[in-house]
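TA notes, week 10

Several of you asked for a full example with nothing omitted. So below is the full record: structure tokens for the whole chain, then the designed sequence directly under it. When grading your own attempts, check the secondary structure regions first.
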């Protein structure tokens, strides 16, 4: 670390200065040379480490650097490594504390809470004649970003992202992106490096705290940047953002393995653990190597027979032993161990989380497991940051695929991603109703695009920022974030009555879309929605209660349940009245799985996960429902025209 080198050479004997400078120059070389875009483009495809995760001598965790933000009004914990038995002293903000390095070289020091400050300060660390100085440190609020690619997706690639980039001059916002890491062992630190991305075909600089500038912000999570910008401008305190998200990840990967193992009441979770354990036990690294060597030899023979040139780096056969399933970043607990593990013990303000896409691949089984794991994951993250009441904001699963219409409404209801989105909301409700006032929620399904990386990230960041500002920063009177709540469901003679806690409507004042209702046969059809009439005024005009919705359908004479926004890219438009941009969340009143709707298609016994043949049977039944409804509606139109 360059900041370590400059601090260390001050006031040291010449011999110490030379040795220390040589060691630190080696570590700092890439940092000093490769920060320019030109040099970064010349880096090889593999990861290029600027500073190792843990140094061989006295060092502090790479979580603590110049330019960082420390959390205000909570104990400040700092840790690192030194020679066993040696004393480490750390000074910051008029406090000085010492600790002795343990047998495993680890040391840890804690400072009493201090108030927010935008005045740059220095932290000085000493051990056996070596001094490290971290500079330009601010004190404010630190937020952790978690999830997969829709959280990770960088600012410069989203709609209106370039506009945000060119105006991203916020020296009191500091940014750290955690390099990819994975288990099974807990990582206690992370390297500072240039990390290669196959998806984007280039390197990303990770592991460094930086001031927010256009050049830095463009690679930050778009949602995270917008969230930080809003919080900083409203609260007027320094903001630190730690991006610990990774594309293509699952909920079980972000949860500690020990927590998953304790979930004995979740059969789906235990089945997942058993499956991975079986795969890991069956892995034969030597057999895999021999198979790859054989394939390499066959490839060489084909190239020579065809007269193709063979690159020099392809001549040698493989010699590495691959880890097999244990090398999968989605092995249960791996992303937590590799990316949250290095952050454990840090004091932070809160976290926001946006994930779920990969769990949808496992159908109703994956959705059921998600619902079991998600609240446990939230509790585990709060424990990691030593705060059982840590603010935690949930962004629901975003859209994918062609938009749902009234013509293909039923067919588009068959998708496990909808159940994942519903699990986000039901988890939020469960915690919120239990008295957890630091749990947050924001829908994203109406920020729709066909691509599974919908690029309307800026509005998503704004929504979750509203929750944080209203609940954590004193703006509850100015900002509304809580989704409209269902208070009561009543059955009517030929419909359902939904009583909500606040007034709702279509922001374009048109037809309310998004509800479907079903009877005992579990055949859902889109519902016609009307406000409940409570009387008439003096002119005889109906008085309507915009907190009560009546759902009916001529296809469902005796409805018993409803679903809302039940599509991966749903036809749904209900939100709070008053240009408040707070949608009614994806939810359902039934407990039927996607394999059981409609009733009786695959027989009385449903095997989960459903075989492909039975999935196709359900899809065909849903298509026939859509067809029957279109025919029915056409007949009604003809009847009206021929009266």
């Amino acid at each position: 670390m360059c900041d370590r080198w400059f601090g260390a050479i001050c006031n040291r004997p010449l011999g110490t200065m030379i040795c220390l400078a040589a060691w630190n120059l080696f570590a700092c070389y890439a940092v000093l040379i490769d920060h320019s875009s030109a040099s970064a483009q010349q880096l090889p495809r593999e990861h290029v480490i600027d500073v190792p995760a843990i140094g061989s001598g006295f060092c502090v965790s790479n979580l603590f650097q110049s330019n960082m933000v420390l959390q205000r009004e909570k104990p400040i914990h700092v840790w690192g490594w030194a020679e066993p038995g040696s004393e480490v002293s750390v000074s910051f903000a008029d406090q000085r504390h010492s600790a002795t390095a343990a047998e495993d070289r680890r040391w840890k020091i804690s400072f009493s809470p201090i108030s927010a400050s935008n005045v740059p300060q220095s932290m000085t660390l000493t051990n056996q004649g070596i001094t490290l100085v971290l500079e330009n440190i601010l004190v404010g609020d630190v937020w952790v970003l978690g999830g997969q690619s829709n959280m990770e997706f960088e600012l410069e690639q989203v709609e209106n992202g370039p506009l945000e980039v060119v105006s991203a001059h916020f020296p009191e916002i500091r940014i750290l992106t955690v390099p990819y890491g994975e288990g099974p062992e807990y990582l206690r630190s992370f390297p500072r490096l240039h990390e290669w991305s196959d998806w984007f075909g280039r390197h990303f600089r990770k592991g460094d705290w930086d001031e927010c500038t256009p050049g830095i912000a463009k690679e930050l999570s778009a949602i995270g940047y917008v969230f930080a910008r809003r919080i900083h401008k409203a609260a007027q305190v320094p903001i630190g953002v730690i991006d610990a998200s990774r594309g293509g990840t699952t909920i079980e990967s972000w949860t500690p393995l020990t927590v998953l193992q304790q979930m004995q009441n979740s059969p789906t979770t235990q089945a997942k653990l058993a499956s991975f354990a079986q795969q890991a036990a069956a892995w034969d690294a030597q057999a895999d190597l021999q198979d790859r060597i054989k394939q390499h030899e066959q490839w060489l023979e084909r190239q020579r027979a065809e007269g193709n040139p063979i690159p020099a780096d392809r001549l040698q056969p493989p010699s590495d032993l691959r880890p097999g399933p244990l090398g999968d970043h989605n092995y249960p607990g791996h992303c937590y161990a590799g990316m949250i593990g290095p952050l454990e013990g840090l004091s932070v303000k809160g976290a926001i989380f946006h994930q779920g896409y990969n769990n949808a691949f496992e159908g109703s089984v994956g959705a059921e497991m998600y619902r079991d794991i998600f609240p446990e994951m939230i509790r585990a993250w709060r424990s990691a940051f030593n705060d059982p009441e840590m603010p935690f904001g949930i962004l629901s699963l975003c859209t994918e695929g062609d938009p749902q219409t009234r013509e293909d409404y039923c067919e588009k209801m068959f998708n496990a991603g909808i159940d994942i989105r519903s699990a986000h909301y039901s988890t939020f409700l469960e915690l919120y109703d239990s008295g957890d006032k630091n749990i947050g929620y924001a829908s994203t399904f109406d920020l729709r695009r066909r691509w599974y990386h919908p690029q309307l990230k800026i509005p998503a960041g704004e929504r979750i920022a509203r929750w944080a500002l209203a609940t954590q920063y004193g703006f509850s009177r100015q900002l509304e974030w809580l989704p409209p709540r269902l208070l009561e469901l009543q059955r009517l003679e030929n419909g359902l009555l939904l009583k909500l806690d606040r007034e709702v409507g279509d922001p374009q004042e048109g037809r309310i879309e998004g509800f479907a209702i079903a009877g005992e046969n579990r055949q859902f059809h889109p519902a016609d929605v009307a406000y409940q009439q409570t009387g008439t005024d003096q002119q005889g005009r109906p008085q309507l209660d915009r907190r009560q919705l009546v759902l009916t359908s001529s296809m469902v004479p005796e409805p018993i349940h409803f679903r809302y926004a039940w599509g991966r890219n749903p036809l749904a438009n209900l939100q709070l009245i008053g240009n408040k941009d707070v949608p009614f969340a994806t939810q359902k009143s039934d407990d039927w799985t996607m394999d059981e709707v409609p009733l009786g298609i695959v027989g009385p016994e449903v095997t989960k996960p459903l075989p492909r043949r039975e999935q196709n049977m359900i899809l065909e039944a849903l298509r026939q429902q859509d067809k029957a409804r279109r025919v029915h509606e056409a007949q009604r139109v003809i009847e009206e025209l021929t009266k």
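The first helix runs from residue 2 to 8. Use that as a sanity check on your answer.
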